[in-house]
């Protein structure tokens, strides 16, 4: 930074020294001058707000300064210990949605504590004294008008990544040169415990690093490191020699010691890991990073994803911490407090999909803090006699925590994570006592020997084994969609799963079984909080999990409807926290509004949270209508099953030129991307569609059959053979097992598309055009398609050629129903015929003028789209992105005109809630169908006698006629 640029910071420091440090009277001017020092006219000119209202569950408080989406700043009086206000700052940050600020700063006029809760809880990413600002200003790079990446001095995530990368590098090298994998894993974990321990001074200071240094100079790790590990498992301390002063560790991890001889490169990696400051390594994320880096290049650890502690707290806080806080705050008598303390010390927590133990680690630390705060309350309010009755020893133990995981190494890693938690508990608890300014002479159990957790953390399949009793169940069950379960686990496992859980729909996602089992295992009044795929709130997955929970005595107390998961860049998740019983008061529902980790949030307070995890009107109880089911007006497109069926335009042109007859079965093929991303929308490939021909009739197209025989047939033979092997294994294990014959069926008709949808093709062949939308989409975009184009399975099809039907489907009223009833893929909406279309009630008695208005508005909307797209060379996706910004927009106006016409056709009030109206209409029509009364289904009303005026000509064309519009 230039001298001229430093001058404003120097002036700020000079001014700040003149202040008395009064939190109330001088905080605002301090903040204003700070913003001036970093290039703004002041806080107001930068767009920040002072005294921002933060609404909590039971009260409203005020944040000193909020500058979205960058900064929350809390000012405290000069001399105040900033550690004390960490909890307040974190709770404020959690509530500040949408546009939750990236950074939080606590300041007492002389010192700045900077937090980035998305990556690091508890410890600030940097601490900067006022006088250090001229040299350390880069830690505040986020304050400049043009934001830069801050340079922090206490980034524990970076330290943890480096440590995980180096330890994983040693493991990978050992396995690569032939060492037994299990022995290499145990050796790596023993090294991790040793490195934590030497920095925590449970080993003689620097001992492990010194041993590695000697090995680098020629000594043997087999002798030195192996000898250390044997001594760590010995109850008889060494009276002298190299390992004098090494205490007994136990813990199970050192019961088996297999010394390994490391080569120099491996010693270097381990020494690099040991040189890291392991007091800064974060156990909740180390295990995940280490495990995900095993068997991969070293650089993978530096880019691997991990579940942030902020996300873990979205389960631990509402499921464990807040219920206990409320009980502690409500307790008034010594008898009540002593009973709570006794109960807390026997409180059991289970993670039935524990992985590396990150949820258990955070839960243990928080339970330890709850114990300390409870003891502090007793000591402060009831005098010396009460102090003597409860003592000063902290008795919350890692033996109160339990875990299950299918992976044996994950189980060993989880044990180490909790062992380390015990090691760190003393320092962490003392630091927390200091931060809360508690007068509490606390005693802790000795850090050594470590507890043996073999009976607490076990390797097993949680869906088929007995669960230990628990008062709270937390965790992050495996993310596996129903569509991938067959390939991942095989038919034998799925049959076993469905036999064990017959009431869970077969189309539910894998994680749903954990939700259901957790609720069954909870005692009355027990709490649970689990992370699941965001389909847990939808359709079959919701029915198997959250519907069951709410319908069987459960109350959802806090939830995240959808968010981008920190543990995986491509996963959107939902989080549900619930109690087995009643829960009075408001419940908070959080929703992330986008596909990026930085996307904004919204929060609403509700009297109750529905299983759909939605603040909208709950339409989960809508019924399928026979009028819609029997209409034949909604289909998924064709699934080709193999790329051999698809041709480029050039390939198709050659075959069409070779034989005119090929045009009968070689047709333009439209995908969702063709519809949304091309200008003009048009098919980019052709498909060979030989249905409904048998193999003899298909032989009339020899060139096409020759192509399919060379490409498709071998693949289908191989897939059928592999399927037969899987089925044999399943039937050998269980003769009554249900097995799939999909690939056998595909092989029997190898010349046909996997799912050619003959009923759909027959319908669209009888009309000039049909309606299509992308099955997975962010926006409501429907379009007409020429009957000569084959639709892919990325499209949802509606064989309805008229403008009125288009208007209903394109309307915001239908879109509201769509997003409330559909499933999702990541953050996008997926059209599902049985839950969306079959339940959607169409207008029942619109007048002819009302029908005409809908049709006219639909035609006008499409005409506007074509004109704007042609003028700007935009695709439909680019056009609809203009609606993401506020302000006047001709497309928005055209859509509003269509919506008004559709509301009129329904008889719906202009400002009425469309979901409430549609649900009521759905129920009314369902009752009519039971009574055998007529119900109007999809399409033009029967009152329209002359349909021709409602069928215009604009649509997507393909092939030689490829054009858009009329």
From TrEMBL:
Gene Ontology BP annotations: methylation
The protein's name in its UniProt record: site-specific DNA-methyltransferase (adenine-specific)
EC numbers on record: 2.1.1.72
Reaction it catalyzes: a 2'-deoxyadenosine in DNA + S-adenosyl-L-methionine = an N(6)-methyl-2'-deoxyadenosine in DNA + S-adenosyl-L-homocysteine + H(+)
Record-annotated MmeI-like N-terminal domain positions: 19-176
Domain MmeI-like target recognition: from-to ranges: 783-844
Organism superkingdom: Bacteria
EC class of the enzyme, as a word: transferase
GO-annotated molecular function: site-specific DNA-methyltransferase (adenine-specific) activity
Keywords: Methyltransferase, Transferase
Domain MmeI-like DNA-methyltransferase: 330-577
Segments forming domain MmeI-like helicase spacer: 183-254
């Amino acid at each position: 930074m230039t001298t001229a640029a430093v001058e404003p910071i120097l002036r700020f420091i000079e001014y700040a020294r003149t202040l008395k440090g009064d939190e109330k009277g001088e905080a605002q001017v301090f903040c204003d001058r700070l913003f001036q020092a970093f290039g703004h006219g002041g806080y107001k000119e930068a767009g920040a707000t002072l005294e921002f209202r933060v609404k909590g569950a039971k009260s409203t408080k005020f944040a000193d300064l909020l500058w979205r989406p960058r900064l929350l700043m809390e000012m405290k009086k000069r001399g105040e210990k900033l550690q004390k206000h960490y909890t307040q700052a974190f709770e404020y940050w959690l509530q500040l949605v949408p546009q939750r600020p990236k950074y939080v700063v606590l300041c007492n006029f002389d010192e700045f504590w900077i937090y980035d809760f998305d990556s690091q809880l508890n410890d600030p990413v940097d601490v900067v004294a006022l006088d250090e600002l001229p040299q350390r200003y880069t830690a505040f790079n986020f304050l400049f008008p043009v934001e830069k990446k801050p340079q922090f001095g206490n980034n524990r995530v970076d330290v943890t990544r480096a440590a995980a990368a180096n330890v994983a590098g040693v493991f990978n090298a050992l396995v690569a040169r032939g060492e037994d994998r299990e022995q290499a894993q145990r050796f790596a974990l023993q090294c991790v415990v040793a490195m934590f321990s030497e920095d925590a001074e449970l080993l003689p200071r620097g001992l492990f690093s010194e041993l590695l240094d000697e090995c680098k100079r020629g000594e043997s790790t087999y002798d030195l490191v192996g000898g250390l590990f044997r001594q760590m498992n010995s109850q008889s301390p060494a009276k002298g020699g190299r390992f004098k002063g090494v205490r007994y560790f136990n813990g199970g991890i050192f019961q088996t010691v297999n010394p390994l001889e490391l080569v120099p490169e491996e010693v270097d990696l381990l020494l690099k890991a040991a040189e890291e400051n392991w007091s800064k390594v974060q156990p909740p994320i180390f295990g995940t990073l280490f495990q995900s880096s095993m068997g991969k290049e070293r650089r993978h650890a530096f880019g691997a994803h991990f579940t942030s502690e902020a996300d873990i707290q979205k389960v631990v806080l509402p499921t464990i911490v807040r219920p206990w806080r409320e009980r502690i705050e409500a307790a008034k008598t010594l008898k009540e407090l002593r009973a709570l303390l006794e109960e807390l010390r026997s409180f059991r927590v289970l993670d039935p999909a524990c992985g590396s133990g990150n949820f258990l680690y955070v839960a243990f630390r928080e339970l330890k803090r709850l114990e300390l705060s409870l003891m502090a309350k007793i000591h402060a309010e009831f005098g010396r006699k009460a102090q003597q009755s409860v003592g000063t020893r902290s008795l919350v133990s890692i033996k109160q925590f339990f875990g299950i995981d299918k992976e044996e190494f994950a189980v060993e890693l989880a044990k180490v994570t909790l062992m380390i938690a015990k090691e760190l508990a003393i320092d962490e608890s003392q630091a927390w006592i200091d931060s809360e300014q508690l007068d509490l002479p606390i005693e802790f159990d000795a850090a050594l020997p470590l507890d043996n957790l073999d009976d607490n953390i076990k390797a097993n399949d949680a869906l088929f084994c007995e669960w230990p009793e628990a008062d709270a169940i937390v965790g992050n069950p495996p993310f596996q969609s129903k569509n991938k379960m067959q390939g991942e686990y095989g038919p034998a496992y799925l049959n076993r799963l469905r036999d064990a859980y017959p009431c869970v729909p077969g189309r539910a996602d894998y994680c749903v079984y954990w939700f259901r089992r957790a609720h069954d295992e909870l005692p009355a009044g027990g709490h649970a909080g689990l992370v699941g795929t965001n389909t847990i709130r939808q359709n079959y997955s919701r029915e198997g999990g959250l519907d069951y929970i709410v319908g069987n005595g459960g109350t959802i107390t806090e939830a995240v409807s959808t968010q981008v998961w920190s543990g995986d860049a491509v996963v959107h998740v939902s989080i549900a926290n619930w109690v087995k019983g009643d829960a009075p008061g408001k419940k908070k529902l959080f929703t992330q509004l986008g596909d990026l980790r930085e996307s904004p949030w919204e929060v609403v307070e509700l009297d109750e949270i529905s299983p759909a995890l939605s603040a909208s009107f709950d339409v989960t109880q809508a019924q399928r209508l026979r009028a819609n089911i029997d209409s034949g007006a909604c289909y998924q497109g064709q699934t080709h099953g193999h790329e051999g069926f698809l041709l480029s335009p050039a390939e198709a042109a050659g075959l069409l030129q070779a034989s005119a007859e090929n045009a009968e079965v070689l047709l333009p093929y439209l995908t969702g991307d063709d519809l949304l991303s091309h200008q003009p929308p048009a098919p980019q490939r052709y498909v060979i569609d030989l249905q409904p021909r048998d193999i003899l009739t298909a032989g009339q197209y020899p060139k096409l059959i020759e192509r399919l025989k060379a490409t498709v047939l071998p693949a289908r033979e191989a897939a059928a053979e592999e399927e037969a092997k899987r089925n044999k294994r399943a039937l050998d294990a269980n003769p009554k097992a249900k097995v799939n014959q999909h690939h056998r069926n595909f092989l029997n008709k190898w010349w046909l598309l996997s799912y050619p949808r003959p009923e759909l093709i027959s319908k669209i062949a009888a009309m000039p055009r049909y309606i299509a939308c992308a099955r997975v989409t962010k926006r409501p975009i429907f379009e007409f398609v020429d009957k000569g184009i084959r639709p892919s399975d990325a499209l949802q099809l509606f064989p309805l050629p008229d403008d009125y039907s288009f208007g209903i489907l394109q309307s915001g009223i239908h879109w509201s129903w769509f997003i409330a009833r559909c499933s999702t893929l990541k953050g996008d909406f997926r059209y599902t015929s049985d839950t969306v279309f079959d339940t959607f009630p169409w207008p029942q008695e619109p007048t002819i003028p009302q029908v005409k208005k809908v049709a006219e508005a639909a035609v006008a909307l499409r005409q506007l789209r074509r004109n704007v797209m042609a003028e700007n060379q935009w695709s439909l996706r680019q056009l609809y992105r203009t609606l993401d910004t506020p302000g006047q927009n001709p497309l928005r106006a055209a859509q509003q005109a269509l919506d008004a016409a559709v509301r009129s056709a329904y008889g719906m009030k202009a400002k009425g809630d469309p979901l409430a109206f549609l649900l009521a209409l759905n129920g009314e029509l369902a009752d009519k169908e039971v009574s055998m009364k007529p119900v109007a289904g999809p399409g033009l009303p029967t009152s329209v006698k002359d349909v021709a005026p409602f069928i215009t000509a604009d649509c997507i064309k393909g092939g030689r006629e490829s054009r858009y519009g009329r």
